[in-house]
Design brief:
Blueprint: H1 2-11, H2 19-31, H3 37-53, H4 60-82
Helix pairs in contact: 1-3, 2-4, 3-4
């Protein structure tokens, strides 16, 4: 599991502590046992973009919301690449 998250942790390395620890913890919970490196990279890109858009130090709730929003955006983009989901 650690080797899977090292690229994500590397992408988040410039974030200050303890925020970085919270981002990593929430990301691990959201990504679960997924082994899709492309999705993890897209998620990290979304997460960094959303974090950069923040104007001040984020609290715990804002960090969790940011992780969830990044996950939703990356999921939506991944679904768009695979085509529409049949009803």
């Amino acid at each position: 599991m650690e080797t899977y998250f090292s690229p994500l942790e590397s992408a988040l390395a410039d974030l200050p502590m303890p925020s970085r620890q919270l981002y990593i913890l929430a990301s691990r919970k959201l990504l679960g046992s997924s082994r899709d490196d492309g999705f993890a990279a897209a998620y990290a890109d979304e997460l960094l973009a959303l974090d950069a858009a923040g104007k001040a130090e984020r609290g715990y709730v804002q960090i969790l919301e940011t992780c969830i929003e990044a996950f939703g955006r990356a999921s939506g983009a991944a679904r768009g690449r695979r085509g529409p989901v049949p009803a």
